[in-house]
């Protein structure tokens, strides 16, 4: 059979002492967990889940930070054939309730207290048991078990025997919801084993000897998906409970990190941290960025400090088990056309079409993809599944441009294209021009309802220094580089942009603010 848990057992048998995780706790304590230990502890979780009646087709939910117990639950669930679903630890009580009602897990693993966002959780929720991480809390309305009891029970050592196969759902991954209500994406074991893992090894050149500084929240596909890939490969994950640029750089130096991956915001914040000018990172060979444009200023700052590093940009989405296109560059000048909207070229596991509004293939349009990595569908939503996958092609909802050499450039999310005065404007194009201004640290551009223009182009800008530029300065800057209808009608200066747990900008919040 082809199942993700089998690969963990192979690593445990072949390289039992290789570190799977180097964990940096919020307290400052550092813990090393080998592949043998990861396999053994997840076996105990698997037996516990099996004894509770959890098996193929069931769900296990996790609400916690990036901690080893999350990983034990991941692999324990995969070994019994249950799908794991991560919940954003920053969710409100109502948001938690919506996801739990939707995915209907039998077991919830959490490091939260019952008095927190889970105070409503009771027998009517369908959750049969809460597995607590940390000190036992009073006040739960349903049965609870301590994670430490499961991990310390020698009777749970034997792996449960289950009928997992490649089509069993491994992850029930909720989309980021930056456009609206998150959707539950069903990702089978086969996606990782026959497509996504090979894509990472080919496209990103990952090795078993890599030591990956892990800064991605587990509840996202970039988080749990990446961790699954790394452990299937057999690499070492430097896991941080709390992501803070200064401590992240220090951990990268202490543990000889070879790869770092995060959104552009992290690289900006890290370059401004005290450790940036002090820490030496001779082992670092790859910096990976995704989820938005990274500015030339940030790339140049990192290149001046760590010139030996190769940069990678990639595009992907939950419906594609994360990875679709990859591009590599050593300096900003190597990016095709100097255009930071570049998302590389399709991986060999991917077929693509670029389809215009007329339904014909062309240079610019919606990106359609076909791959073994495409999801099995949306959980309990056949209608949405049929709308998204037509004739075997996944409609990504992303508008791209393809040049004569096969490079792809991200134009915009289909729902983010601004229709102003009868013309279409890419928010990404305007953002790229704004980021070229010396005074702009971060920005986001959205369309807001307007009686004259239908939608007005509105920019939200985080300045490098307050008071050094005006709204008109930036509008004039844009008009010098863009057709006048693309230039912002208004510019609002902010201390920071609204972001989700991955660091992606939540534009719907800005649209509401701009109205």
Describe the protein in words.
The protein has 515 residues and is α/β, with parallel strands linked by helices. The protein has 14 helices and 27 strands. The strands form five sheets. Strands 1, 2, 10, 11, 12, 13, 14, 15, 16, 17, 18, 20, 21 and 22 form a 14-stranded mixed β-sheet that branches. A five-stranded parallel β-sheet has the order 4-3-5-6-7. The longest helix is centred in the first third of the chain and has 17 residues, at 35-51.
Q: Name the structural class.
A: alpha/beta
Low-confidence stretches: none
Counting DSSP E segments of at least 2 residues, the number of strands comes to 27
Provide the gyration radius in Å.
23 Å
Share of residues in helices: 25-40%
Strand content: 25-35%
N- to C-terminal separation?
Answer: 54 Å
**Taking all residues together, what is the mean pLDDT?**
92
Q: Could you provide a short overview of the structure?
A:
This protein has 515 residues and is of the alpha/beta class.
């Amino acid at each position: 059979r082809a199942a993700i848990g089998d690969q963990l057992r192979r690593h445990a048998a072949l390289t039992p002492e290789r570190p799977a995780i180097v964990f940096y706790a919020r307290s400052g304590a550092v813990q090393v967990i080998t592949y043998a230990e990861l396999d053994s502890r997840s076996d105990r979780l698997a037996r516990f889940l099996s004894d509770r009646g959890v098996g193929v087709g069931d769900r296990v939910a996790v609400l916690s930070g990036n901690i080893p117990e999350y990983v034990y639950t991941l692999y324990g669930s995969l070994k019994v054939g249950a799908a794991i679903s991560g919940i954003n630890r920053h969710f409100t009580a109502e948001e938690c309730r919506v996801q739990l009602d939707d995915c209907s897990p039998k077991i919830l693993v959490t490091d939260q207290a019952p008095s927190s966002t889970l105070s409503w959780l009771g027998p009517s929720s369908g959750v049969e048991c809460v597995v607590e991480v940390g000190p036992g809390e009073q006040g739960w309305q349903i049965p609870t078990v301590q994670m430490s009891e499961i991990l310390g029970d020698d009777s749970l050592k034997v792996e449960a025997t289950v009928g997992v196969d490649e089509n069993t759902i491994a992850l029930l991954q909720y989309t980021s919801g930056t456009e609206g209500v998150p959707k539950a994406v069903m990702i089978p074991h086969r996606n990782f084993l026959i497509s996504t893992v090979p894509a990472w090894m080919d496209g990103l050149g990952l090795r078993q000897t890599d030591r990956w500084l892990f800064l991605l929240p587990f509840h996202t596909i970039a988080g749990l998906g990446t961790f699954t890939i790394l452990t299937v490969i057999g690499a070492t994950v430097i896991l941080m409970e709390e992501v803070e640029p200064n401590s992240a750089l220090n951990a990268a130096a202490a543990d000889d990190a070879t790869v770092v991956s995060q959104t552009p915001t992290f690289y900006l914040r890290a370059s401004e941290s005290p450790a940036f000018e002090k820490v030496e990172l001779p082992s670092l060979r790859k910096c990976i960025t995704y989820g938005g444009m990274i500015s030339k200023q940030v790339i140049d700052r990192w290149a001046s400090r760590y010139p030996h590093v190769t940069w990678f940009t990639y595009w992907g989405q939950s419906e594609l088990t994360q990875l679709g296109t990859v591009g590599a560059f050593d300096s900003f000048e190597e990016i095709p056309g100097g255009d930071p909207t570049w998302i590389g070229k399709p991986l060999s596991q991917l077929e693509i079409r670029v389809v215009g509004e007329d339904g014909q293939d062309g240079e610019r349009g919606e990106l359609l993809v076909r791959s073994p990595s495409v999801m099995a569908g949306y959980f309990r939503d056949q209608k949405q599944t049929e709308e998204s996958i037509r004739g075997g092609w996944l409609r990504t909802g992303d508008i791209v441009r393809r040049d004569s050499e096969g490079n792809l450039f991200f134009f915009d999310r289909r729902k983010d294209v601004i229709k102003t005065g009868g013309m279409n404007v890419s928010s990404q194009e305007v953002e790229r021009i704004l980021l070229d201004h010396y005074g702009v640290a971060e920005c986001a551009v959205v369309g807001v309802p307007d009686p004259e223009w239908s939608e007005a182009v509105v920019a939200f800008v985080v300045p490098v220094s307050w008071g050094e530029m005006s709204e008109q300065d930036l509008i004039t800057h844009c008009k010098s580089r863009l057709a006048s209808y693309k230039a912002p009608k208004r510019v609002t200066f902010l201390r920071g942009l609204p972001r989700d747990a991955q660091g992606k900008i939540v534009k719907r919040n800005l649209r509401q603010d701009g109205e």
